[in-house]
Design brief:
The chain is mainly alpha-helical. The protein is 56% helix and 0% strand.
Length: 87
Amino acid sequence: MATLQIRINDDLKTQADALFASLGLDTSTAVRIFLTSALEHDGLPFEVRHKPIPADLQQALDDSRMRKNLQGPYRTAKEAVDAMLED
């Protein structure tokens, strides 16, 4: 039998232990379940993706990539800050 050692944040370990205990499991058993499920799925047993970006932020990102609706260039940092504070 092999031993698996990992380093994790103390708070994460405490919270995970409590969660698994509430499910009637210890953390070692939960990790074994995860690894078994990963093998059965031939990958991670859950979807891995980015969090959705809010529409207004996505629009700002798209605008900056397309160089639309941009302000400036500014000659000084004060000009840039003043422009950001305008309504």
